[in-house]
Amino acid sequence: xxTSRAVLAPIGAVILFLVFWxxxxxxxxxxxxxxxxxxxxxxxxxQYWNLFLIMGWQTLxxxxxxxxxxxxxxxxxxxxxxxxxxxxxALYPLLVGFNAIPKATLVPIVALLFVGAHDFxxxxxxxxxxxxxxxxxxxxxxxxxxxxxxDILRSLGASQTTIFWKIAxxxxxxxxxxxxxVAVTLAFIGTNLMEIVSPHGRGLGALFDSGKTNSDxxxxxxxxxxxxxxxxxxxxxxxxxxxxxxxxxxxxPTQ
Length: 255
Hints:
Blueprint: H1 2-28, H2 41-47, H3 49-83, H4 85-100, H5 103-113, H6 118-143, H7 147-155, H8 160-197, H9 203-213, H10 217-246
Helix pairs in contact: 2-10, 3-4, 3-6, 3-8, 3-9, 4-6, 5-6, 5-8, 6-8, 8-9, 8-10, 9-10
């Protein structure tokens, strides 16, 4: 019952969204060069299906690599801040200040620093835009660990490493996966920023830019929907991992 609802509810929401979108375009009599409707998109997918496969894969693997780097670096920074108040006080202003910088302004700088390294540039921007929530969530999870647990384990001779693996890490997992769900969408934003602002003919961002240049609005909206689908798929991968590693923290939803 719960599983069927978990599948049918999002599918129903997507269908309602598409119907509402189609109705809005129809009600306003917008031509497809002003606002494409869902019924305009199948033709774009049919015409450019090979480009969607190739460029969709390019966007996906760069996003995943950037996200993996964000997880590794974010967890390490979060651990440093979570276990040391001095480190936390020192790094928080730097992290907040860096995160406040619009990443679109960093794209030209990165592109100039690493001219021609298109894959590296794209992965770097995806990493830079998505590691912050992971670092903060891990830091908060570790810094709020009850001191009684640490004192008891230390009195029993447990090392800092043992305390981390047995107590701190399991406690942090719910916060970590919550931040990872946010980081997934941010990583896609970073990937497409580089693909659009610094075009190099790769990824869905380049396909979107091509549609904009040729005033092919159905293609542009088809790219946006493809990006949304990739983001949703990666989000549910994170949800599946959360059920495996932190399913114990999930509360039974209300009816």
